[in-house]
Amino acid sequence: MEVLSDEELIARYRLAPSSEDSRQFIDELFRRHRTRVIGWCHRLSGNRDLAPDLAQDVFIKAYSSLHTFRQDSRFTTWLYVIARNRCHDEARARSAARREAPDAFDPVTAELNAALAALDARDARTTVQTLMKEVLNETEQRVMTLHYGLEMELGAITTALGLTNTSGAKAFIVSAKRKLNVAVRRWKMKS
Amino acid sequence: MEDEILKKALAPGPDCLSLEELGRYADGALRGEQHSAAARHIEGCLTCQAELALMQSMTSPSERGAPKRPPFLPIAAAAAVLLALVAAGSYYMLLRKAPEFPPSIPAEGDFTRSLTLGVRSPLGDQREAPHRLEWVATDRAIRYRVRLLEVDRRELWSTTTTAAAVDIPSTVQSSLTPGRTFLWEVTAYDAADRIVSESGRQSFRVLPR
Q: In chain A, what residues touch B107 (CB-CB under 8 Å)?
């Protein structure tokens, strides 16, 4: 059983999905990915305690959706997509439930917002991304995009990217905003 | 409304690839114009770049960059597998009842082997003091313990990370003086805090100027 690839296990399961014996193929498939999925959920949620529960949800979803798995990509990737979606949903739900009080007034953010507000909405995407590529390093770009674009919490980004500095992703947000402030000011003067 | 513009500028746009499409791109399953169009979009889009990088760091850290493999299991091969299995006499399986769900998730005690963790750099002679330690990510590892040592095994610096690389702080880097040999080692741990792989002691030397 252990010598079979993930995709071979699925192929055998699909031969007789309603067979009780076919369950051994699914059990083996999920057994070999269990620790990996818990690790993903930990990194994507930034919450070690929540990870096993999220992983269980991922396996339930994977089981019920197995018929949609197209064998043109790896099972691991397909499973990751389910985990990513589950952790994203969880982050959004927690964020909505918390409705955290806004941070104390931050002059850097306020200045950047004022500068960005002048952009035409249609051009904002292109302009902001272009400026980010010009003035931010790769980690700053990733942290900003994961946080603002993909709605990941700062703690989760710190864990997911393996950031080892003291304040994690937050420090990269602050430095990125300072750099963007300068870049937006320069861009406005030019245009 | 705070940061609303940043959110709009960085959220997935109508042209962005879905997670599933990014997965197929990462696995080399897109072909021809589909692949070219995806590559062109990703090259210019920070949102897709971030999502793809996150995916690759989780699923195949050692295969970052453009996908290299052909589609994982071509249709013909899949058909052959199915035919072979049927011919092999799996008919009896058809007669059994449907499995109940949720499937049993086995205990973590199944994973006990500690494997060798491959290292990338630095190894051997270095022109300059290295600023980064890199190794090959290990399946099931969720964190790595990294130690940098003097040749007498005295610890210079250590840290824990979830990535397959870590930057050496500048204060530590400045102590990696030319003409001396240093050791480093990485230990990978899984979600249950068990060791899944170890690099053993590696060495490098900063060449004298």
A: none
Query: Does the interface ipTM go beyond 0.85?
Result: yes
Q: Do B59 and A31 touch (CB under 8 A)?
A: no
Question: Residue A160: which region, alpha, beta or left (left: phi > 0; alpha: psi -120 to 50)?
Answer: alpha
Name chain B contacts of A156, Cβ cutoff 8 Å: none
Residue A188 near residue A116 (C-beta atoms within 8 A): no
Mean pLDDT (10-residue bins), chain B, 209 residues: 76 92 89 90 94 88 36 48 48 39 38 63 86 86 88 81 89 86 88 81 80
Positions of chain A with pLDDT lower than 70, given as ranges:
1-2, 98-108, 115, 118-122
The verdict on A15 touching B (C-beta cutoff 8 Å) is yes
> What would be the CATH architecture of the domain defined by B115-206?
Sandwich (2.60)
Q: What is the pLDDT of residue A188?
A: 78
Residue ranges and CATH numbers for the domains of chain A are 6-98 (1.10.1740.10), 107-190 (1.10.10)
Which residues fall within 8 angstroms of residue A190, CB to CB, at 6 or more apart?
A: none
Backbone angles phi, psi at B185, to 5 degrees: -150, 150
